[in-house]
TrEMBL record:
<protein>
    <recommendedName>
        <fullName>TFIIS-type domain-containing protein</fullName>
    </recommendedName>
</protein>
<dbReference type="GO" id="GO:0005634">
    <property type="term" value="C:nucleus"/>
</dbReference>
<feature type="domain" description="TFIIS-type">
    <location>
        <begin position="122"/>
        <end position="162"/>
    </location>
</feature>
<keyword id="KW-0479">Metal-binding</keyword>
<keyword id="KW-0862">Zinc</keyword>
<dbReference type="Pfam" id="PF07500">
    <property type="entry name" value="TFIIS_M"/>
</dbReference>
<dbReference type="InterPro" id="IPR001222">
    <property type="entry name" value="Znf_TFIIS"/>
</dbReference>
<dbReference type="GO" id="GO:0003676">
    <property type="term" value="F:nucleic acid binding"/>
</dbReference>
<dbReference type="InterPro" id="IPR036575">
    <property type="entry name" value="TFIIS_cen_dom_sf"/>
</dbReference>
<dbReference type="GO" id="GO:0006351">
    <property type="term" value="P:DNA-templated transcription"/>
</dbReference>
<dbReference type="InterPro" id="IPR035100">
    <property type="entry name" value="TF_IIS-typ"/>
</dbReference>
<feature type="domain" description="TFIIS central">
    <location>
        <begin position="1"/>
        <end position="119"/>
    </location>
</feature>
<dbReference type="Pfam" id="PF01096">
    <property type="entry name" value="Zn_ribbon_TFIIS"/>
</dbReference>
<keyword id="KW-0539">Nucleus</keyword>
<keyword id="KW-0863">Zinc-finger</keyword>
<dbReference type="GO" id="GO:0008270">
    <property type="term" value="F:zinc ion binding"/>
</dbReference>
<dbReference type="InterPro" id="IPR003618">
    <property type="entry name" value="TFIIS_cen_dom"/>
</dbReference>
Amino acid sequence: MRDKVRSLIASALYKDTDGLVADLAGAEPAAAAVEAAMFTATGTDVGGAYKSKYRQLSFNLKDAKNVALRSRVLRGDLTPAVLVGMSNEELANEETKAYRKEVAETMLREAQPGGNARATTDMFRCGKCKQRRTTYHQMQTRSADEPMTTFVCCLECGNRWKC
């Protein structure tokens, strides 16, 4: 099993390496070091964690757009122990990282704050300051056959009450 994984990692490393290795055999030492680090990091067992880490590394090393990762491994800029410890986000190519960052920013921008939606109205009068600038939200606090409870907050003095 380990020999097969080693050869598969070597073939992933050899893909489009921009002349860093002359042939597939040139990628073997780096692949052997990566496989050994992976075996050590996953508890010296060829079980689920080992296979999962192999799939993660294989996917990212084979990625046609991830030449930089392969080059860093082959040149020795990225040690096998560090490579094995990297997360999916760290292993991804630059285009994927930029896309994920953009999506995260969009989700953050569009996220609604927690809590209930509130509507502004002049329908209610504050018993404390007698102003009509209030917000309210409704919530089902009793059984389903009972009407909803309306919670009101005065925007002028902060007084809260329920109807």
